[in-house]
Design brief:
six-stranded mixed β-sheet, binds zinc ion, Metallo-beta-lactamase, Chain A, 14 strands
Length: 267
């Protein structure tokens, strides 16, 4: 069975490490910093098999070069670096576009283009298989628990389309976001939907995890459909709240999403 482990980096990043216990190899996702990854691999007797990259931001890519240099000391073949084809990330040797499928450790990963946070953003989805029961989604900075990434490059329309595509994955999909933003996001979600008991309950369970030094991630698609306002812009609860806050009559889901995203930017 493959496992996924979070490696903490910077103040609130997680570099997800997919481990193959049979071969003691691992895949790292969005290595923004090599140091904690090298330490984790040494401590757990792992060698680097490949790297997945979701988008070009430094806190997802700056560790690639040092990791490749480190691996070159012992690796017998080049390390595969999978990432978006329409990106300036020079280390990518396996460029990917919408619908591409790759196989790592005999496990399939499907690629979706999810622009919005950046224009080069992709996600990796691995359907349920004998090596891991729940499906996996590595979504970078597009979907966060109870939130979504800021719109640095894309339009609200692009981001909403991307989020809706991610939300269509099976409800039991484990969602591996790359930042521990959950509690701050939940504070915003409670302000937007103060009568939503599911948000309150989830906030309590996440607070307990943080007090005990545990990540709140992975989350699941089911949880996010219930507590993430950015996936609920078609619901009356969110529509009415955003209309009140912006003093505007909200008609379309896109209008609600756009106003909600700018409300969060100044929250
Ligand atoms: Zn980013």
């Amino acid at each position: 069975m493959l496992t996924v482990h979070p490696i903490k980096a910077f103040s609130d990043n997680y570099i997800w490490c997919i481990e193959n216990p049979a071969t003691r190899q691992c895949v790292v996702v969005d290595p923004g910093d090599a140091k904690p990854v090298v330490k984790y691999m040494q401590d757990n007797h792992l060698t680097l098999h490949s790297i997945l990259v979701t988008h070009h931001h430094y806190d997802h890519t700056d560790g690639i070069d040092p990791l490749l240099k480190e691996a070159a000391k012992t690796a017998t073949s080049a390390i595969d670096v999978y990432g978006p084809a329409n990106s300036k990330i020079s280390q990518i040797n396996n460029p990917l576009t919408q619908g591409d499928e790759i196989s790592i450790f005999n496990t399939q990963f499907r690629v979706s283009e999810v622009p919005g946070h950046t224009l080069d953003h992709i996600s990796f989805f691995s359907p349920s298989d004998p090596q891991h029961k729940s499906p996996w989604l590595f979504c970078g900075d597009t979907l966060f628990s109870s939130g979504c990434g800021r719109l640095f490059e894309g339009s609200p329309k692009q981001m909403l389309t991307s989020l809706k595509a991610l939300a269509k994955h099976p409800t039991d999909t484990k969602v591996y976001c790359t930042h521990e933003y959950t509690l701050a996001n939940l504070a915003f979600s409670e302000a937007v939907a103060p009568h939503n008991q599911k948000i309150k309950d989830y906030a309590q369970s996440c607070q307990k995890k943080r007090v005990n030094g545990l990540p709140t991630l992975p989350t699941s698609i089911q949880t996010e459909l219930e507590i993430n306002p950015f996936l609920r812009c078609d619901k009356a609860e969110i529509k009415e709240s955003v209309s009140r806050h912006s003093n505007l009559e909200m008609l379309s889901e896109l209008e609600v999403f756009t106003a909600l995203r700018s409300w969060k930017d100044s929250f």
